[in-house]
Design a protein that fits this description.
Blueprint lengths: L7 H12 L9 E3 L3 H13 L9 E6 L3 H4 L5 E4 L2 H16 L13 E3 L11
C-alpha cells in the first residue's frame, strides 16, 4: 500500500513506486484516493510504458468532471455532493442554534463503471 496524501506529487510518486516493481510483483489494479490522484496514476503508467487497462486497471473516487473525459474514461465512485452540501448547511444551522444531535453521516455512493478497469490480467 502507498499513500498519496491528497497531493498530486505524492500520488504520482506513490504510483511510480508501485509501477517500478518487478512485473510479477507489480499490482494489476490501483484504487486511488480520489479522481485527481487516479489521473496521476495514469501519468505514471504512461511514463512507465504500462497500458491501461490491459496491464493496469485504475479506479478513482469522487466522479469529478475530468473522469469521464480522459482516455480511457475513469471508473470511479460517485459521491452525492448535493446531499453532502445540504447536510453540511443543516449541520451549520443546527450548530448555530446549539441543537447538533448527530456529528457524523454516512452517504450513499455509486460505482460508475467506465473503461479504466478490466478483469485481472493474471491468473
Amino acid at each position: 500500500m502507498k499513500v498519496g496524501d491528497y497531493v498530486s506529487d505524492k500520488a504520482y510518486k506513490a504510483a511510480c513506486d508501485l509501477l517500478e516493481m518487478r512485473e510479477q510483483d507489480r499490482p494489476t489494479a490501483i484504487f486511488a484516493f480520489n479522481d485527481l490522484g487516479a489521473i496521476n496514476v495514469y501519468r505514471a503508467a504512461r511514463q512507465h510504458g504500462i497500458s491501461l487497462p490491459e496491464q493496469l486497471s485504475i479506479i478513482g473516487f469522487d466522479d469529478v468532471y475530468p473522469a469521464a473525459g480522459i482516455c480511457p474514461s475513469l471508473t470511479t465512485i460517485r459521491q452525492p455532493f448535493d446531499l453532502i452540501a445540504r447536510q453540511c448547511i443543516d449541520l451549520i444551522l443546527e450548530a448555530r442554534e446549539g441543537k447538533v444531535e448527530q456529528n457524523y453521516f454516512i452517504f450513499p455512493t455509486q460505482l460508475v463503471e467506465r473503461e479504466s478497469c478490466v478483469s485481472s490480467a493474471r491468473p
